[in-house]
Amino acid sequence: MCKDMSPLEKAIQFHGHICPGLLMGVRAAEIALNYLQFDSDQDEELGAIVESDTCGVDAIQAILGCTFGKGNLYFKDYGKMVYTVFNRQNGRAIRIAQKYDALEHPIMERYRHLKGRELLAPEEEIELEDVLAQVFEWIMSQPTERLFHWREVEMPQLNKARILKSIQCHNCGEGVMQTHAILTEEGLLCPECHLNWRGDNHVRG
Ligand SMILES: [Zn+2]
Ligand SMILES: [Zn+2]
């Protein structure tokens, strides 16, 4: 990704649209950057645990360089707008949580109302664009304390990305990471074939 882009631009390019969730992720990533004092060239040393799989996580990936592919993005399906970001280089970690009422504002209510509608009249489409512009201004200008709680936490104990050996699934013949293969009466199966195999059994049984 282009080095001259601002964090906000990186996030928008990566995510593909501007929305409140992405902007909140940008604000959370800013806190992490300030707090962990890291230089974006060393993003291999950075890791993030995210507790939702929503728009904000794209900002974390684009700005902090923590991605699934690199193995430094960890997903916990807690349905919470919480990001724990850590720097392996200096051993510091920070937990950033969106405040419960962070997005309570009349402009956000208007935005949710318009977004929640199935069909918008042409004048409402225009209004939505204007409302989104106001949401943008509002989120980006709020003091961070208005939007998030954060505190330093202990370094999470996580395994660094490993190269895993693949084996061949007995049923489909495709490779599957050794850690994911399941031993059955039919031989070693990938999780997908294992699910189908169990499903078939269930029907037969
Ligand atoms: Zn979005
Ligand atoms: Zn298979």
Name the descriptors.
205 residues; alpha+beta; 60s Ribosomal Protein L30, Chain: A; 2 domains; 5-stranded mixed sheet; two-stranded antiparallel ribbon; 41% helix; binds zinc ion
Q: Describe it for me?
A:
- With 205 residues, this protein is α+β, with helices and mostly antiparallel strands.
- It has two domains: 147 residues, 60s Ribosomal Protein L30, Chain: A, CATH 3.30.1330; 39 residues, no CATH class.
- The protein is built from seven helices and nine strands, in the order ααβαβββαααβββββα.
- The strands form three sheets. A five-stranded mixed beta sheet has the order 2-1-3-4-5. A two-stranded antiparallel sheet has the order 6-7.
- A hairpin with a 2-residue loop joins β8 and β9.
- The longest helix has 20 residues.
- The model has no long low-confidence stretch (mean pLDDT 90).
- The site of one zinc ion has 8 residues, from α7.
Q: What does the largest sheet look like?
A: 5 strands, mixed
- Computed Rg: 21 Å
CATH class descriptor of the largest domain: Alpha Beta
The average pLDDT score comes to 90
Question: Could you say how many structural domains there are in total?
Answer: 2
Along the chain, the helix and strand elements come as: HHEHEEEHHHEEEEEH
CATH architecture of the largest domain: 2-Layer Sandwich
Shape: globular
Low-confidence stretches: none
Number of strands: 9
Strand order of the largest sheet: 2-1-3-4-5
Write the layout of secondary structure elements.
Layout: H1 7-15, H2 20-36, E1 46-50, H3 55-64, E2 73-75, E3 82-87, E4 92-98, H4 106-116, H5 122-141, H6 144-147, E5 148-153, E6 166-168, E7 175-177, E8 182-184, E9 187-189, H7 191-204
Parallel strand pairs: 1-2
Antiparallel strand pairs: 1-3, 3-4, 4-5, 6-7, 8-9
Helix pairs in contact: 1-2, 1-3, 2-3, 2-5, 4-5
The structure holds zinc ion (ZN) (2 copies).
